[in-house]
Amino acid sequence: MTARLADCIVGLLSFALAAGTIHLTSDGRDIAAAWPANAVLLAALLDRGPGARAGVFIAGFLANLAANVAMRGPSAGLLLYGLCNLVEIGIAARLLRPVLVDDGLLGAPSVVGRFIVICGLVAPGLSGVGGAATAWLLFGQNFWGSFVTWLLSDGLGLLILTPFFSALLRGDYLQCFSDRDWWQRSEMVGLQVLTAAIAYGVFFVAGRPLLFVLFGPLMLVTFRLGRLGTTLSVMIIAAIGIVATLHGQGPIAMIAPDPREQAVLFQVFLAILLLTCLPVAAALTARSARLASLSRNAEALREREVVLARLAATDPLTGVLNRAAFSDAAAAAMENPAHAPLSLIALDLDLFKQVNDRHGHRAGDRALVHLVSVLRADLREHDLIGRVGGDEFLVLLPGTDLDQTGAIAARLRHALRRKPMTLDDGTTMHLSMSCGTALHRTETGFEDFMHAADMALYTAKRARRGVVHPG
């Protein structure tokens, strides 16, 4: 939808509300006892950036002027009424904009109090001075009576309808509905139907003014559906109450026979209803946000702990287990009968010092990384690799006897010979390694187990480099 089309829709809605309330609550000369039209304009302004508000002001002024001319006839005072209304929504938007939160108007408890003061007192109070002066000077109305009527009609209209129209224009209702599963959607619809049914009973069936009964379902909606559900329920109650009151039925008609009194009384009731539940909804929203934030922080901490634990257990160069972590893993495997027979390979690169001396430590580091890549490519997923010294590595082989371990070590040695390492200058280097193997004995611990494999490795290196020697 384009901005111009949106402005036209806002203007038409504002015109319809203004014309309807003038017709129902004004004699054509005095100030209307209800004024919901400004709530639509304020909601649209709050949804726009600072550079895209001119269209809303123009649409609102034309709608206001057209509604007044249609209902009251042409008059210079109507221009002043329109300007006063623009001042009202401009002030309210300017004061509310800095405290808006990401999830919409009244999404935080701190915003509710400020919203009440700005929309219920400050904005309609300042514009009401101009509106009352216009009614006094041009229409002969009492200034203070006109001021009080303006303050009540505009203030109550902003308080009651702005949250609803703000959520409607932002698409919050549709988004909230689409984000929920079928069970939650059924609950949303069911609670609103329950509210409508009770409201119908209060306004059309009950023979006594039982307005207090409506607080029950509305509070239930507040706790289950939050701010958006609350504002929608209030609109449902308002729609049913307006129809009943216009037909002379319901508690409002019982209490106040005069239509102007009915309009003010009904708005006061809706404002009390809404402002009783909105702080609760805002507090629940804030608590849910805090709980969600705590949950995210806890998850981030768990992920960080996992990363830190992995870093603490990992050799930073090659990515295999370091000595301490390999020792713990091997000790656990040694205590698990399912891993028997358990064998160990101790290996290191032949002539590794010459690699560092001739080609630099960077080449030496790359040789270690290359060795690990060869080992991983030829070992099983559950076999463990650990770096326990400069170029010395251990490989733990669960479920493998000594003969099988020797064959695996020989296969690894040949795999390394078949895969030369490429240096920075493009030349290739053939690496070789020596291996020693050991079988775990029930009575031995990890240090003795590793020592047996080390001794076998040293025997292999003394015999001649590259051979596999069993321990």
Molecular structure report:
Helix 4 (76-96) packs antiparallel against helix 5 (109-139), helix 6 crosses helix 9 (215-246) and helix 6 runs parallel beside helix 11 (259-313). Helix content is 70%, strand content 7%. The protein has helices at residues 3-25, 37-46, 54-72, 76-96, 109-139, 143-170, 172-178, 182-205, 215-246, 250-255, 259-313, 323-334, 352-359, 361-378, 402-418, 446-463, and strands at 342-349, 384-387, 392-398, 421-422, 428-429, 433-439, 468-470. The two termini are 79 Å apart. The model has no long low-confidence stretch (mean pLDDT 88). The strands form two sheets. Strands 2-3-1-6-7 form a five-stranded mixed sheet, sandwiched between helices. With 471 residues, the protein is an alpha+beta fold. It contains 16 helices and seven strands. Strand 2 and strand 3 (392-398) form a beta hairpin.
Task: Considering the chains and any ligands shown, give keywords for the structure.
elongated; 70% helix; 16 helices; 471 residues; alpha+beta
Short description:
With 471 residues, the protein is an alpha+beta fold. The protein is 70% helix and 7% strand.
Strand residues, percent:
5-15%
Mean pLDDT, all residues: 88
Order of helices and strands: HHHHHHHHHHHHEHHEEHEEEHE
**What characteristic shape results from the CA principal axes?**
elongated
Rg (C-alpha, Å)? 40 Å
Major sheet size, sense and barrel closure: 5 strands, mixed
Q: What is the helix tally?
A: 16
Distance between the termini: 79 Å
| Helical coverage, percent range | 55-70%
The class by helix and strand makeup works out as alpha+beta
How many distinct beta strands?
7
Q: Can you list the strand order of the major beta sheet?
A: 2-3-1-6-7
The residue ranges in which pLDDT falls below 50 over 5 or more consecutive positions are none
